[in-house]
Amino acid sequence: MDDMITMRCTLTLYATNPIHVRARQILDKIPKGQRTEHICRLLTAHERSKRLETIVYDAVLKALKEHGSVAVTQNNSKGSDESDEVEKNFFGFLSTLQVKGGGNTDQVL
């Protein structure tokens, strides 16, 4: 039989901190024996979500640049100027896609 390696993690939650109280309420609803698995799934899901957020942001930015709504910059970082420009043009870009696609403007993409 394989020897199991156990890693321990201690979590201190303070009753005076509202977010800690809420976390404890959520943890208490998870059956004992399933809490570690649940926490691990949440942590890895958060990591996947952040990666997906970056992928979607980059894809939208690329589409906006190709559409001509945002000037291409050499800086690869997500600076506030570029983010502001993306925000300003995002809905116009979606509207243009809708019109080009002949879609119903009442429909949500």
Q: Average pLDDT value?
A: 74
**What percentage of residues falls in helices of 4 or more residues?**
55-70%
Order of helices and strands: HHH
What value does the Rg take, in angstroms?
22 Å
Number of helices: 3
Distance from N terminus to C terminus (CA atoms, Å) equals 53 Å
Structure class? mainly alpha
Spatial shape: elongated
Quick description:
Helices cover 61% and strands 0% of the residues. The chain is an all-alpha fold and 109 residues long. Helix 2 packs across helix 3.
Describe this structure in words.
The protein contains 3 helices and no strands. With 109 residues, the chain is an all-alpha fold. The chain starts with 17 loop residues before the first helix and ends in an 8-residue tail after the last helix. 2% of the residues are buried. The model is unreliable at 102-109 (pLDDT under 50).
How does the SSE layout of this entry go?
Elements: H1 18-29, H2 35-67, H3 80-101
Helix pairs in contact: 2-3
